[in-house]
Amino acid sequence: MDSPSSAPDNVYTSHLGEVQIDLDATPSGEIGSIGGRIQSRADDEDKDAKSTLDEPVSTTIRRDVEAVVQKFYHVLRPHQSKRLLQDWDLWGPLLLTVTLALLLRSNAEASQRTQVFTGVFFIIWFGSCVITINTKLLGGHLSFFQSVCVLGYCILPLVIACMFLRLLSYLVSHVSVRLVLVAVALAWSVYASIGFIKASSPDSRKALIVYPIILFYVVIAWLIVNDVSA
């Protein structure tokens, strides 16, 4: 038997048998393929990050606007896609909150406009956070920002109703018309939000999760009816 010292430096020869292990061998088989996939994925992520950082500001803004518009579409046609959950953002909820606060502020008295704006802003964002915490404590699987994103985007029907009622007030001022339109928008907001959140909630606790969501949108709807009818 050859002496171990006669073997190359990168080969280990066992004294118990004719077994040699090449320490410099390249991993092959499944281990090698896994390593290759991990490296390929890391390279793709690096390329995406570099392309995002190197792109013009106008391209970034256009992509973000398109993403917000797509999420608006998913709210108006709920259960058609999970994009609202997978690719969350807070730009849409912020835009809707500011729009609704400005609409409700415009009809308030001059001395109360600041309070109305901040009050609407506080109710929407604080309410979203409270509902999200409640959902998490009851075993919901959505992340904090995913839940806030869904709740914020789903006020879109109520914001549209507020805009429409503002225009309709020049033609029709009967309270029953306003109540019907806000009720339809309320039902749409509740239906859309529950459709996204209910699927990630435990079956035994869905009622406890859904009730605060309904109450949240009822409060916003009441603000709209109260403002338009004033």
Could you characterize the architecture of this molecule?
The chain has a two-stranded antiparallel sheet. A hairpin with a 6-residue loop joins strand 1 and strand 2 (20-22). It has helices at residues 29-54, 57-76, 83-86, 91-106, 113-137, 144-153, 156-168, 175-197, 206-228, and strands at 11-13, 20-22. The longest helix is centred in the first third of the chain and has 26 residues, at 29-54. The protein is 70% helix and 3% strand. The termini are far apart. The radius of gyration is 29 Å and the shape is globular. The chain is built from 9 helices and 2 strands; from the N terminus they run ββααααααααα. It is mainly alpha-helical and 230 residues long.
Key structural traits:
mainly alpha, 230 residues, 9 helices, two-stranded antiparallel ribbon
First-residue to last-residue Cα separation: 102 Å
Structural class: mainly alpha
Spatial extent as radius of gyration: 29 Å
Total number of strands:
2
Provide a concise account of the structure shown.
With 230 residues, the chain is mainly α. The chain has helices at 29-54, 57-76, 83-86, 91-106, 113-137, 144-153, 156-168, 175-197, 206-228; strands spanning 11-13, 20-22.
What is the element layout, followed by pairings?
Layout: E1 11-13, E2 20-22, H1 29-54, H2 57-76, H3 83-86, H4 91-106, H5 113-137, H6 144-153, H7 156-168, H8 175-197, H9 206-228
Antiparallel strand pairs: 1-2
Helix pairs in contact: 4-5, 4-6, 4-7, 5-6, 5-9, 7-8, 7-9, 8-9
